[in-house]
Amino acid sequence: MKKDRFSILVVDDEDSIRNRCVQLLQKKHYNVQGVSDGEQALFLIKKGSFSLVIADIRMPGMNGIDLLEKIKETTPDTEVVMITGYGTVDNAVEAMKLGAYDYITKPFDMDRLLKVVEHIETKFALKNEIGALKDELKKFSAQYDFIGVSDEVQQIFQLVQKISPIDCNVLIQGESGTGKGLLAHAIHSGSPRNEYPFVVVDCAALTESLLESELFGYMKGAFTGAYANKEGYFKIADKGTIFLDEISELSTSLQGKLLRMAQDHEIIPVGGTKPVKINTRILAATNRNLEQLVKEGKFREDLYFRINVVRIDIPPLRERKEDILPLTRFFFDKFKKRFDKNVLSIDQQVLDFFQQYEWPGNVRELENVIQRMVITADKRKATMEDLPEKMRLAAPPEDAGERGSLSSLDFTEARKRCLDSFTREYLIDALKCHQGNISKTAKEINIQRPSIQRMLKRYNIKKEEYM
Question: Looking at the domain assignment, is residue 1 inside a domain?
């Protein structure tokens, strides 16, 4: 039995009730089996996998409560609904405390049963789809050290996965330290060019004359000291990707020469006369507002449109504070392993302070601070004393009351919004792939058609969004 298929097991020693439940659920196209006692049920559960078990509380041999406890020990993700008579409602309440999803009293309304099953099926479907999405995102995060649970970061993950295989130029905007270089590398790694060079150029680090010769190369005798021909970064990146970091710092003259490359896919080395064809994907980044620079006449509009086929805006860390704790855990574990300090933990006061701090250096600052803490901590716990002095001075006094840290409730709600958003987009994309055909979509993503219809209603997905 496939683990990702919603399946139901009905357990009741009364043949009439068990058969009625099975027949009703089969009419609704559920994958359902029925057995007469707890021992048979437990055998099947251990042998296969059931999403939902509907079990009577009173049965000979192993009763429903005992079966519930065994199920939660064996397959804790399996939901259990108890069937109870009027005189055993107290037992059903006890079952809820032990982990039962719900209970239904005899004689029960079949509509009530169907509603409970539908709720659990929807939960199961969402859990599977969200789990798949989370697995993809964890893989992406682990591979590129770009960590985040906020809506903004999750949307960036999705966009990067969509555009990486498509050979288009990309502009990445964000403050220093937000991870623009990591995203550029992720785009290159996910593209068909990943077997060819990924060349990084810091446009702010070199003078105009030096940068021109480094970008486009030069011919022998082009200037004093040019004793031989030299290939530039664009030639080195041929068939691969070039990442132009801080592209806003290019002079107007160099912008014009870069436009030729972006437009005609050719360069002329310094001192040369013949154009050289180049097949390079351009990824550019800046910590400034390039659109505003265009309006101010400081950046060429034609070049802006050439490099800005797709734009990714990375928000600063202070605007996505729900990412601070996951990033902290990631970097803390990373440096504990690197410096062989596996027993080290981090004080809650530090975590609370991290939530308040504005992080002007963004993720890069957070990483550097945590690295310093792990190195300098002499005890088994990294504390406020291990922070840089400027941060300790910015910290509130210990008796200043609550520090306004993100509560677990806030974090859970933020994560729920994120996952809901992902589920909605995933369903829309799946429907688009099948031209809006719900039956084909249901078969492809292994969710029953009624579940998709309920999800369309739940997430307020209009037909025009996927047709």
Answer: no
